[in-house]
């Protein structure tokens, strides 16, 4: 009998939804504080590695890079118009341990540089830029085992710039 007292078959359809959150994903643009942000991207303003109360994320530099941020105001795409001249500074972001697909872009319009930059110890940006070919980008897969994704300079950098980094946890 159903709820109305009518004889018959009562069935119930149940759906189970298993919430499997996507892995950690973050796009970070290196830019000065007063530069307009990009939708879907976090801005790194060159501050020291610390918890960012406004985002709940922990990221930043081992030494302040705020005076080294630039905005050329020459291109519409902020990712390529802004950046940082990090020198020997290291950049870190707290992330869950796992395997990440990372894309790192370096360069500055009209500026030549020599690059030897690693992500999690894996050489990523290796080579030279010229005024005619100012960008050097690399996609790579790295494994994080200390809950911190790190971008570090290796020996041989001269006049290098970092524009942006994208990271997606894949395992």
Give a topology summary.
Elements (H helix, E strand, L loop, with lengths): L24 E6 L11 E3 L5 E3 L4 E5 L7 E3 L6 H4 E3 L6 E4 L3 E10 L5 E7 L2 E8 L5 E10 L3 E6 L8 E8 L2
Parallel strand pairs: 1-2
Antiparallel strand pairs: 1-13, 3-4, 4-7, 5-6, 7-12, 8-11, 8-13, 9-10, 9-12
First-last Cα distance: 50 Å
Which regions are unreliable across 5 or more consecutive residues at pLDDT < 50?
Answer: none
- Compute the average pLDDT: 91
Read across the widest sheet, the strand sequence of neighbours is: 3-4-7-12-9-10
Structural class based on helices, strands and sheet pairing: mainly beta
Helix-strand pattern, N to C?
Answer: EEEEEHEEEEEEEE
Radius of gyration: 22 Å
- Helical segment tally? 1
The percentage helix is under 10%
Brief descriptors of the model:
five-stranded mixed β-sheet, six-stranded antiparallel β-sheet, 13 strands, 171 residues, elongated, 44% strand, 1 helix, mainly beta
How would you portray this structure in words?
With 171 residues, the protein is an all-beta fold. It is 2% helix and 44% strand. It contains one helix and 13 strands. It has one helix spanning 78-81; strands at residues 25-30, 42-44, 50-52, 57-61, 69-71, 82-84, 91-94, 98-107, 113-119, 122-129, 135-144, 148-153, 162-169. The chain has a six-stranded antiparallel β-sheet, with no helix packed on it. The protein has a five-stranded mixed β-sheet with strand order 2-1-13-8-11. A two-stranded antiparallel sheet has the order 5-6. β3 and β4 (57-61) form a beta hairpin. The termini are far apart. The mean pLDDT is 91.
